[in-house]
Design goal:
Chain B: InterPro entries: Aromatic_CoA_ox/epox, Ferritin-like, Ferritin-like_SF, PaaA, PaaA_PaaC. Chain B: This is Phenylacetate-CoA oxygenase subunit PaaA. Chain B: One of its GO terms (molecular function) is phenylacetyl-CoA 1,2-epoxidase activity. Chain B: One of its GO terms (biological process) is phenylacetate catabolic process. Chain B: One of its GO terms (cellular component) is cytosol. The complex is a heterodimer of chains A (98) and B (335). Chain A is α+β, with helices and mostly antiparallel strands and 98 residues long. Helix content of chain A is 22%, strand content 21%. Chain A has a single domain, classed as Roll (Ubiquitin-like (UB roll)). Chain A is built from three helices and three strands, in the order H-E-E-H-E-H. In chain A, strand 1 and strand 2 form a beta hairpin. Chain A is elongated. The model of chain A has no long low-confidence stretch (mean pLDDT 89). With 335 residues, chain B is an all-alpha fold. Chain B has one domain: Ferritin, core subunit, four-helix bundle (Ferritin), CATH 1.20.1260.10. Chain B is 64% helix and 2% strand. In chain B, strands 1-2 form a two-stranded antiparallel sheet. In chain B, helix 4 packs antiparallel against helix 7 and helix 6 runs antiparallel to helix 10. The N terminus of chain B is likely disordered. Classes of the chains: A alpha+beta (98), B mainly alpha (335). At the A-B interface, helix 1, strand 2 and helix 2 of A face helix 4, helix 5, helix 7 and helix 13 of B.
Chain lengths: 98, 335
């Protein structure tokens, strides 16, 4: 099977805004020759039922991801900083909602 | 649509580079996450066998969606009304979309799109055997929606809780869309059943031909399904073949009654003690014969698929050439 083009079509990550006022959310990926084609294909693949009002496509290679092995280093330090949460502080009942 | 043969061995996934002996603490962390019903994401370490199993299962599933477009696609130009034609086009387009979600999910495991397509087109990779049977009359299209997609839903809903994140997320989207597939099929059959004797006979004939094939879609009995236990252990498979089959039968019998058709199994009867319907023997020899490539339409389906791919080569090449040209032009303008 001779499919050189398929090998060369880069991978794109697709982000869809489901409605005005909400953020774009990652919904999947696809192969396309260029950005315009990626947008066009994202519309057909990911928004056949009015799932979105706006689409972003990003070349997958442009995404830098944190390494799962660094999870502890990156995220554990936040675990003992409970004073960053409002529930850490005791406020007298009569103050009411704060 | 769906695949039954998710634990049918084939060659896909074998070519993945083997990760050298991973330290056992990684393996322990993986096992612990699985035990806690956690999710595995693409960047996480995973045992090679887990990766291979997923590549095989997800790519077989994707192939099934793509080949699944063919039996119904044959009826688009012959649909009995504009309404049914629009519905069928939408459904076939959905199947193509499902294939694309699943190919993307499989690619996160390190396989590539052309590797998977090569597997399908060369006949090395399997897809659901249900698509190797012909769609002889319009009622077949309704029966595929009602029974084949119905069986697919039974199988796919538990996959939404699969331990591999990208697969589970793809399945959530697939399941949302699949419900329309089953309902449109059942409704199309209801309309035919209100028609002439000849139309009712067509529905019954389609049910007779597809019923047993649909039961086989759930895969071999648990006792003969060697991969099942490991798949369950890894949280890839959540419910066994036989349990899913039973669930499907129990759900379908009342639907058949409302529709007014007979399911072609003299042994099919309610078992009060079990709280389930008993059913007859599935012809597994025929199932395996079709899996091995000797079903009525295996060759035709594959040939159609390969031809479609080859006929589309110039489109892919043109898109590629256009993208290259645009890039060069942008560079020149910037200079």
């Amino acid at each position: 099977m001779n499919t050189p083009a398929l090998k060369d079509w880069p991978l794109w990550e697709v982000f869809v805004r489901s409605k005005q006022g909400l953020e774009h959310k990652h919904c999947g990926s696809l192969h396309a020759a260029d950005a315009a084609q990626a947008l066009h294909m994202a519309r057909d693949v990911y928004t056949r039922r009015q799932e979105g009002v706006s689409i972003w496509v990003v070349p997958s290679v442009a995404i830098t991801a944190s390494n799962p092995d660094d999870k502890g280093e990156l995220f554990d330090p936040a675990a003992d900083k409970i004073y960053r949460h409002p529930t850490f502080y005791e406020i007298p009942e009569e103050v009411g909602h704060m | 649509m769906y695949t039954q043969a998710m634990d049918i061995p084939d060659d896909s996934g074998k070519k993945l580079a083997a990760v050298s002996n991973a330290p056992s603490d990684r393996e322990a962390a993986f096992e612990a996450r699985i035990d806690a019903d956690g999710r595995i994401e693409p960047q996480d370490w995973m045992p090679e066998a887990y990766r291979r199993t997923l590549v095989r299962q997800i790519s077989q599933h994707a192939h099934s969606e793509i080949v699944g477009m063919l039996p119904e696609g044959n009826w688009i130009s012959r649909a009995p009304s504009l309404k049914r034609k629009a519905i069928l086009i939408a459904k076939v387009q959905d199947e193509g979309g499902h294939g694309l979600y699943l190919y993307s999910a499989a690619e996160t495991l390190g396989t590539s799109r052309d590797q998977m397509l090569e597997g399908l087109h060369s006949g090395k990779a399997k897809y659901s055997s249900i698509f190797n049977y012909p769609t002889l009359n319009w009622a077949d299209v309704g029966v595929i929606g009602w029974l084949v997609d119905g069986a697919a839903i039974m199988n796919q809903v538990p996959l939404c809780r699969c331990s591999y994140g990208p697969y589970a997320r793809a399945m959530v989207r697939v399941c949302k869309e699949e419900s329309f597939h089953q309902r449109q099929g059942y409704e199309a059959l209801l309309v035919m059943m209100k028609g002439t004797d000849e139309q009712r006979a067509m529905v019954q004939d389609a049910v007779n031909r597809y019923w047993w094939k649909c039961l086989a879609m759930f895969g071999p009995p648990d006792a003969d399904s060697p991969h099942s236990a490991q798949g369950m252990r890894w949280g890839i498979k959540r419910i066994s073949n036989d349990d899913l089959r039973q669930k499907f039968i129990d759900a379908t019998v009342p639907q058949a009654k409302v529709l007014g058709v007979t399911l072609p199994d003299p042994d099919l009867k309610w078992n009060e003690a079990r709280g389930h319907y008993d059913y007859g023997q599935i012809d597994w020899a025929e199932f395996w014969n079709t899996v091995e490539g000797n079903g009525p339409c295996n060759k035709e389906r594959l040939a159609t698929r390969v031809k479609a791919h080859n006929d589309g080569q110039w489109v892919r090449d043109a898109a590629q050439a256009y993208a290259r040209k645009q890039k060069e032009r942008a560079l020149k303008e910037a200079a």
